[in-house]
Amino acid sequence: MLKRLVWCREILWIPVTALVLAWGLSATPLLQRLEELTLDAQLRLTARQHHFTEALVIDIDDASLDAMKPYFGNWPYSRDTYGLLVDYLSDMGARAVAFDLVLFDPRPGDDAFRESIHRNANVVLATAARLDAPEQKVQANVSMQSLTWSAPSDLRLESWPSVQPPRPLFTQPAPHYAHLGVVSAIPEQDGLLRRIPLFHRFDEQVLPAISLAAHFPKEPRPSVSMSTPSRVQVGPLSIPVDKDGAMHLYFPKNHDYVVSLPFSHVAQAMLGAGGKALNAETFRDKTIFVGSTAFFTDRVLTPVGEMKGVNVLALIHQSLAQGLLLKASNTMACGLLLSIALLPALGLFISPQRRMSSATGLALAGGGLVYACHFALLYGWHQESALLLPLLVVAFTLLLETIRALRQGAKRDRLAGFRPSQN
Prior knowledge:
The protein is of the alpha/beta class. Helices cover 43% and strands 18% of the residues. The chain folds into two domains: 2-45 and 328-413; 51-322, no CATH class. The chain has helices at 2-26, 29-46, 62-72, 80-91, 110-120, 137-143, 210-213, 263-270, 309-322, 331-341, 343-346, 356-381, 388-417; strands spanning 52-60, 96-100, 123-130, 158-160, 162-164, 179-182, 195-197, 199-202, 205-208, 224-228, 231-234, 237-240, 246-248, 258-262, 287-292, 299-302, 305-308. α3 packs parallel to α8 (263-270) and α10 runs antiparallel to α12. The model has no long low-confidence stretch (mean pLDDT 90).
């Protein structure tokens, strides 16, 4: 019994030291960057194909600008064009129309666009957050009057110095005109967009991301509460967020996850051009996102490559509806993988004098099990978890056990050298 206690004391330092070393190394910027890249690779590996049917993108691209120049003139268009589009889409049964366009300055056709918004009551307009100091704070406050949301005090919000809302003409008096949603997000340090805030704060005013706002185009603003520390309940939607209140984006394997129509196709059908009619089923009960990718604008970099920003908004909208957002890494997921990573070290308490070939085999098995569980969490539950940290624990355990075995071998050799000879 005493010998077993001595062994335990001699062995305990191995898992403890492995944990300390792994934690310390994982906190360095290099390992954090590698962890991020590893997760990107795993997400690409576990991604599945999805074809969303409740959202549609209308892309104002370069080809559309050329095709519609005889009808609407040069870009930017008179805003009565958007009014015609809202009327057409609403007549075709669209549930909501979200514009990913900057509409803060006066333009011809504004009054016609306002009347269309009022007639259909299903429009959400983009609001851009700004990193510079506010310039027209009074106008911004008027634009968002009675349109801001209430968020729970324990939910962290993305705070911005100022905001660039659309013209008050399109939103006031609320709620009889357009609703607002924020389209801004700051990419990671490497320029990739992996997460996006659920809510944004400007002074004391709170607005949702436009993908969330588009779920409630006609209804009064829904109640918002924290169902758990990492999950926000917005009306019927249960949304996972990280400690900063951001949604972690899920990117499908296929790039045609949402139907995207060139604006020219829709505009020609809207104007009644011969042979250009579109089936009402194309738009019925769908949320339509209208954005411009002309002149190479509205492009974002993601872990799966460059994507059109308006397509990403549609993707987030559908991910909210279908519960496809990723769950941020948490203590339970991390603890599970660390427990598995410690299994090879715990085996030392059963077999303190095991051979290094056995230790190496157990380490490889432990690392493989860690990877398999990480893969299963990501693929089956969309649960993020740290992978490099537990793998480092396995590696450090094997390294420390090797050092211990070498030291013990050297000690035995020294004792053998002092053994008295027999005559």
